[in-house]
Amino acid sequence: MSEILPERRRQLILERVRAAGAAKVADLAQEFGVSDMTVRRDLNRLVKAGELNKVHGGAELQSGSSADEPGFQSKSQLQLPEKAAIATAAAKLVEPGMSVSLTSGTTTFALARALRQIPRITVVTNSPRIADLLQDAPVEGQTVLLTGGMRTVSDALVGPLATASIASLHVDRCFMGVHGFSIEDGLSTPNMMEVDVNRLFLEHSNNNVLLADHSKFGTKGLYRIAELDAIDTLITDDGLSLADVDAISEHIHDLRLEKA
Question: Most buried among 18, 93, 125, 137, by the most CB within 10 A?
Fold first, then answer.
């Protein structure tokens, strides 16, 4: 592996630990072509930042950490009825002739299934899974644009290639899935590399729709993407409390509660 900057190496170490739950110093040193001492210094920085726990011979992810990023497969098994209801409602906002962007995620993946029935739309995504899903069942006049980039644990393409692709486009509507959202911290993610990509998705769209089941409310990732006010419409399920609905409605005026 070619030499990489220490900050980038530490981000990659975080991703390895998120994917496996733990990592050994010796394995990381071999993978990145650096000394055990260098890896230990990296781990000490990450532990001090509260992102990892140090264990004998390596490090592990903190239980319930804001840096914890489950893989796509594990997330795809959660809140299935809620995601299906949200996706059905979101698909009604897409009409032939529109251009839309879908960020990577399991709820947006559910939306992509519904979009396979809509002709003459252009879909921009940083999700290889979404692109494959749409390409495998081509519809008349439907165009799929997949950004370049480096793949994360959650199967999102990120980095300079992804941001350059998104910055050159502008769509009618953006559908965004998130790790979590809250009144105080807005939309958030545990992956630093996803922040710039998701912000650009929001900025390069005429209308922004957040797709998130009720379990995402109050969940806080390590990195903030945007304030809730950046969202025009929230499509969620009916699992939110009345108090939560009132609080969210002060920031997102078009709030749609779907029955799971």
Answer: 125
